[in-house]
Design a protein that fits this description.
Elements lengths: L3 E5 L2 E10 L3 H9 L1 H7 L3 E5 L5 E5 L5 E10 L3 E6 L2 E9 L6 E9 L6 H19 L7 H16 L4
Antiparallel strand pairs: 1-2, 2-8, 3-4, 4-5, 5-6, 6-7, 7-8
Helix pairs in contact: 1-2, 3-4
């Protein structure tokens, strides 16, 4: 299912939700352990964790964009700057600790031609996290992205 996207007082918010059959600590490692992070988003690198910490985005041209961490709660919350927007991951463990819910929200200031590209990208990333946690190899992400991109283009049309 695609993200829920709606207009709010400061722009827009896209919310993704994944129910995962994995404990929260394993999901958290996918977000903050650079080795695991590289498996599903090779351009990202955690430079320093914590409020005021930094995530780097490798621009693939020898430069890096610094993305400050805005909110951090060990094992539960990671929010950082994403261009003009903000990306927030939240992990909620179930009462048994065996499964968890991963929420990703992107707070979008302005809709642009790039917005559906980012949303399709996040969708593919979340699918990749689940695939890796399930111990399976990733398939070609470009094909997956090509599948989801037009759906996000259509989902954004009523909001423009």
């Amino acid at each position: 299912m695609i993200a829920q996207i709606q207009r709010n007082e400061s722009g827009y918010i896209a919310e993704f939700k994944r129910e995962l059959n994995h404990p929260a600590y394993k999901v958290w490692a996918m977000l903050i352990d650079n080795k695991r992070l590289k498996e599903w988003f090779p351009e990202l690198e955690v430079k320093e964790l914590g409020n005021g910490g930094m995530i780097l985005f490798d621009m693939q041209d020898g430069t890096y964009e610094e993305m400050p961490i805005l909110d951090y709660v060990e094992g539960k919350v990671l929010e950082f700057v994403w261009g003009e927007d903000k990306v927030r991951f939240e992990i909620h463990a179930d009462e048994t600790g065996e499964t968890s819910t991963l929420l990703l929200s992107e707070k979008i200031t302005f809709l642009t031609d790039h917005t559906p590209k980012d949303l399709a990208g996040w969708h593919v990333c979340l699918d990749a996290i689940e695939t890796l946690l399930n111990g399976r190899a990733l398939t070609e992400s470009k094909e997956e992205w090509d599948h989801w991109y037009p759906q996000y283009v259509e989902a954004l049309k009523p909001l423009q």
